[in-house]
Amino acid sequence: MIDYHFDWTVITRNAGFLADALLLGLGLAVASLAIGCLIGLLAAYARLSRWRLLSGAVWIYVELIRCIPLLLLIFFLYFGLPELGVRFLDKFETFVAALSIYAGAYMCEVFRAGLESIPRQYVEASKAIGLRPWQRQRYVVLPVMFRITLPSISNNLISLFKDTSLAAAIAVPELTFAARQINANTFRVMEAWLTASALYLLTAYAIAIALRQVERRYAAIR
Amino acid sequence: MTDPILLQARGVTKSFGGVNVLKGIDLDVLQGQVVSLIGASGSGKTTFLRCVNLLEEHDGGEILLDGEPIGYRDQGGRRVRLSEARVSAQRARIGMVFQQFNLFPHLTASGNVTLGLTKVLGKSKAEAQEIAEHWLDRVGLSAHSARHPYELSGGQQQRVAIARAVAMQPRLLLFDEVTSALDPELVAEVLTVMRSLAESGMTMLLVSHEMLFVREVSDHVLFLEQGRVAVEGPPSQVFDQPENERLRSFLGRFHGLFGASSA
Strands across the sheet with B228-233, in order? Predict the structure, then answer.
C-alpha cells in the first residue's frame, strides 16, 4: 500500500524559483555549447592539420576529456584550480568553462568527421572558380559540413543540455539544485523530482523539435 | 592565322608515385580555338587538363596562359611555387567543367553561378544576379534558377556547371569528359550548349569521348598515348586519314564511325 499523499502546492508556491532555475540552466547550456562549438571547430581543423604536434595535442585533449567524467572535470576546475592559484572564476564561470571544454572535445569529433567526409569534388569546384583557401572553407566546406553533421550536432546539444544538471554539484542554482532545495526544505520528494524531470523532458523535447525543423530546412543536400 | 597564342604547354611532365603519367606534352591553343584531347583512359588527357588549372601540379616543363607561367615563377633558374592567392587569381581566369558536375549542393543554380562572381570578381549581388540570369537563360535553365542541384537532372546540373564556369568570363574553358556521367538521352542538351559556346568564339580545351562532336567542333585534335602526344592535326586529318596504327585501332572502337577504321 502506497502511503504518499501528493501536495502540489509546494510546486506552485515555488514556481518562480523553478522557472528561474530552468532559465539559468538553459543560459548555461547555450553559453557552453556556443563556446564548445567554437572550440570544437578550431580543434577539428587543428586535428586535421599537417602539423603533427598540433594534431597530436588535440588528439590528447579529445581522448582525455572523453574518458573523464564531466563531474570530475567540474570538481577539478572548481576545487583544483584555486589550489594552483587560479581564483578568478566564480562557480558559474567555472561550470561554463568545464562544460565548454567537455563539449569542445565531442564537437571536435563531430566536426572532424564532417570535414573529412566532404567530397573532394566540391573543393575542386571551389578552387576552379578561383576562391581563395579561406573562402573555400567559408563558402563551401563549412556550409556543406554543417548540413552533413546537423543530426550529430542535434544529438550532442540535447545530451549536453541535460549535463547542466551537474552544475548542482557546485551549488549553481539550476533546476536540479532547485529541486533538491525544495526537497530538503519541504520533504516533498516526489513533487520536487517529478517536476524537475518533467521540465527537463519538456525542454529537451522542445529543443529536439526545434532542431528537427532546422534539419528539415537545411537538409537540402544530396 | 594571326590569333595570339592563349595557352602554351612546353614539355609538361607529371608523375604519381613514380609512374610517369605525362611524359612531355607540347600544345598550343590559339585564342578562339577549340582544341580536343582524345585517347584511351590512362593516356593522361585528364591529368593534363587538371594541370592547366593547377588541380594537379606539373613536375616539369611549363604551362603559359597569355604568356604567364601557371603555378610557378622562375627565380634565377629555379621553379618557385606561386602563393595561394596568386594561384587562385590564375584559376579565376580559367573555367573548368567537371565530369561529375561538382555543383555546390547547398546553393541553388543561381547561387552556384553568383558565388564566384561576388566573392572572386567582387561584383555586387544585383549585378551577379543579373549575370547569372543571363547565363542560366543561355543554357536554357532560367526557369530553374531557384532549384538546388538535387532537384535537377544530370544534364541540367551540367548546364548549370557550364553557366557557372562561363559567367566568370574566363580566358579559357576546360571541359573534362563532361558528358561521360550522363544518361545517353541527356548528352545532346549539353553538347548543344558547348557547340553554341564554341560558335560564340570561346576558347575551349576539351577531353572527350564524343568523337563525332570532337570532329565537328574542334580546330585541332591531339591523340594522347601513354603520356605523349602521338598524333595531332586538324580533325579531318586525325579522324579520316589516321596513319598511326594505335590511333586507327582507338578510333575503330567507336563502332566504325570513321572511314579508316579497320573493319
Answer: B94-97, B172-176, B204-207, B34-38, B220-225, B228-233
Domains defined for chain A, CATH in brackets: 35-172 (1.10.3720.10)
Residue B2, pLDDT > 60, answer no
Q: For the residues A75-102, what does the mean pLDDT come to?
A: 90
Cβ separation B148–A135 shorter than 8 A: no
Chain mean position to CA A214: 17
Q: How far is the C-alpha of B163 from the C-alpha of A2, rounded, in Å?
A: 75
**How would you classify the pairing of strands B204-207 and B172-176?**
parallel
Section B147-156 average pLDDT: 94
Under an 8 A CB cutoff, do B120 and A129 touch?
A: yes
**Count of CB contacts below 8 A, A vs B?**
78
- Using CB atoms, which residue from A124, A130, A221 is nearest to B92? A130
Tell me: pLDDT of B3 over 90.
Answer: no
CATH class for the region spanning B1-92+217-263 = alpha beta
Delimit the domains of chain B by residue range: 1-92+217-263
Contact A144 B100 (CB under 8 A): no
Most A CBs within 10 Å, among B106, B108, B115, B169, to test the A interface: B106
Q: How far apart are CA A123 and CA A140, in angstroms?
A: 7
Contact B106 A222 (CB under 8 A): no
ipTM of the complex model: 0.91
Please provide the average confidence, as pLDDT, over all residues in chain B.
92
pLDDT of residue A157: 86
Determine which helix (DSSP H) or strand (DSSP E) holds A192, and give its type and residue range: helix A189-218
